[in-house]
Amino acid sequence: MAANAPALRVENLETHFFTKAGVVKAVDGVSFSVERAQILGLVGESGSGKSVTGFSILGLVDPPGRVVGGRILFDGQDIANAGEAQMQSLRGNRIATIFQDPMMTLNPVLRIETQMVETVLAHQEVNRETARKRARDALGQVGISSPDERLAAYPHQFSGGMRQRVAIAIALLNDPDLIIADEPTTALDVTIQAQILYEAQKLCRERGTAMIWITHDLAVVAGLADKVSVMYAGRIVEAGAIDQVLDHPVHPYTKGLIGSVPSRNKRGSPLYQIPGTTPALLNLAPGCAFRERCPRADPACLEEPGLSEPVPERAVRCFHPYAEAEA
Amino acid sequence: MSAFVIRRLLQSIAVVMVMSLIVFFGVNIVGDPVDMLINPEADQADIEAAIRALGLDRPAHEQYWYFLVNAFKGDLGSSFIFGQPALQLIVQRMPATLELAFSALFLSVLIGIPLGVYAGLRPDTLASKTIMSGSILGFSLPTFWVGLMMIMIFAVILGWLPSTGRGETVPLFGVPVSFLTLNGLSHLLMPAVNLALFKMSLVTRLARAGTREVVHQDYIKFARAKGLSSRRVVMVHVLKNIMIPVVTVIGLEFGGLIAFSVVTESVFAWPGMGKLIIESIQNLDRPVIVAYLMITVLMFVFINLVVDVLYSVLDPRVRLQDMRA
Amino acid sequence: MTALADHGADHGAEQGVGQADSPLRRFLADFFESRVATVAFAALLGIVFIALFAPWISPTNPYDLATVDILDNRLPPGSEGFTGMTFWLGTDGAGRDILSAIFYGLRTSLSVGVMSGLIAMVMGSSIGLVAAYFGGRTDTLIMRIVDVQLSFPAILVALVLLALLGKGVDKIIVALVAVQWAYYARTVRASALVERRKEYVEAATCLALDHRRILFRHVLPNCLPPLIVVVTVQTAHAISLEATLSFLGIGLPVTEPSLGLLIANGFEYMLSQKYWISIFPGVALLITIVTINLVGDQLRDVLNPRLQR
Fold first, then answer.
1. Strands A65-74 and A8-19, how do they pair?
2. pLDDT band at C177 (very low <50, low <70, confident <90, very high)
3. CB A157 to CB B226 under 8 A?
4. Which end is more exposed in chain A, N or C (fewer Cβ atoms within 10 Å of the end residue's Cβ)?
5. CATH code for the domain of C70
6. pTM (2 d.p.)
7. Of the candidates A209, A214, A142, which has an alpha carbon nearest to the alpha carbon of residue A179?
8. Could you give the 3-state DSSP secondary structure of residue B175?
9. What's the pLDDT at C73?
10. To probe the interface with A, which of B226, B311, B321 has the most A CB atoms within 10 Å?
11. Are residues A75 and A190 in the same domain?
12. What is the span of the domain harbouring residue A308?
């Protein structure tokens, strides 16, 4: 892999669900890129299409959903329409995944050892003993003590945090180039969450792994990600370096999101609420999807705003962005 | 683990005792035990001797005790028709019934699970819908009627398979079995399929329901995200999860197979204990009836015990709960 | 969603019929939406009609020895008999018209099935209601008996009873009731338990209303939807079981020939290619069981609040 080429570049990705009631454009022209040793935060409310974006990269969108357009360049190669065999050799090997709910991602009736060893054996020509040794090492790396004992255990014998560590260990097994983490800390206690975030960041830096961290929680990406893309109704509405976006949001939605996070500096003053709810994506009307909830909306917003780049590496999809200084 | 087995064992013994009480008092309350247990053609002196021998002149609780003691000694009376000990008669017929029941079990699992898993993985295909309609028929059609149709088609019209009997048997560990000879196998095929149909439908539906539930679980998506082949995902991750309910039901339903072999054995003249009990009921051969009931109860209780233990082996979560309990 | 649908069902049962969009109308509209169910329902009506009026619509009375001619025995379907009458489905070993025998057999099979179903329903539902309503030890005891009974296959239970009781219409009804009651008890108990926890029952209890009144006027009506489904399934099951037992020769006596017995009578002729003696009664049995099951399936879909759109 060339030193400066991004590990993953997604261009105009479109993933639609063809339901009986109509077409749901869950992902509608999403673009972003992530480099080695970099963490991209993909932020949005539930239903914004952030998880579907992750599954699209993995080629795991279930029917009636389908990737209908755009390119997914992984290591310079377009995998948007790659065959199942090729995707299978990438998944769990060069592109690893960590899911949201650690209670649900490990198979309850299989030992941890089985679930780890099979991941190694699916991708590498090694014997069972070597695979087992790797599994043990991976558990050690994520801070699980007495890995031998743990390997023989079943998932229900672990706490939630431990299970998520196991899931991360499984992701690390084949030393991937890219890890897609779909809300991996949402189901955990705050202290455990902090530990996991710390581990993830450290591993990413040490190994030079690119990471996409999907979350609805701006506070999580704040201390973790290098850059962030904010999704709303299947589109990216704002993107940029993490500090820029958080300190100087320009899209009304991002600004609303940040305003709705409680913080010490804002104690006493009422929290901001974004009025209304996320729009249903089924047969979404054209124009800016946020206009119904937007304080700055006007008739111009009936048109679809394009993604502009006010400054390099900074993008916003709005006719009436806030000036950076306003924030 | 062993505490669990011991507790289940004690429960099973309790159920057997309760059932022996029911059978014993059923015989005493519903009919005159003298009529039930003694050959009605015996003369007066014989009857009185038998009454004393059976302890029928004693109070009920003592009689029950005798019944139990004799049952433990393996003495459940002698058949009026055959003149042999009832227990011996049943034990002689048992291998035929067990062979039939195990063959049916084998068929229903071997065919039902793949059909059900397929229908669960691809619920909208024509093949899946056909499988599911077939399973509804398998549920609702009376076994004896399907058996008759099979005889008519495969034995009478096509002449491919023999319609009755067990065919040639060879001893396996001293027990005569049919499935090791071609002739025996041809005799076994139709009754086994006939007996299996109901369970096969059940297993298919269970496997389908289980598969449909399991494939939407996160851990299946995670397994795919790990880059496992769909073969491994289905054969290990899906199958191991659906096996828990399937094994439970198969186990519990094994008793049902033995009970329903009564029908299949009568249709195909299969010389097992099911055919024996029907003939005994028709001939009012009561000692055989009582012996059959006791043996069947024992078998049921034993099967339930085995299923419970198997269940705990398959599902680690049950094991854990039990260790905590 | 489930809670909402449940709530709707409660009101449905209490308001009854009569309004424009009454629950009954909606139920009927939903039921006849499926063409298969409509056809099955029509066929079932036909079968019930035949069973009810068998003596008047049968071409002959197959059990009137004066009209049956032994010389007409084992005629294939469509043959003309000794007296010039056409036997559309042929005759059996004693020269009886198969079509008439089927009509009479349906009458016997259906009446035994329905009778046992009704008795089992009344018995089982009452027991289930009592278990749910009084709870505690009563409930534990009843449900333990139900569990033990259900752990034995129906055919075995029937076999035991018939072995002890002997043949006869009354005896087979007893056996079929014994087989079925536990299902009703379990179903009614389950839905009654849900009802019992609702506020209106607590309110009625606080008003010190009579136990019986609360149970039968308030709790029972709300258990009806699942009960109706169980009734159809169990009736089909009872008919099938009766046919099986009669086929085995331990059910109904020869004087009350149900479909099972007709099939058994023809069995010996089947091997000599005289298939019609067994097949036609078998087809009649089949149609009866399948139509009841189809109607039951549709009822389950329509009455299940979780599936309601």
1. antiparallel
2. very high
3. no
4. N
5. 1.10.3720.10
6. 0.77
7. A209
8. strand
9. 66
10. B226
11. yes
12. 8-94+176-326
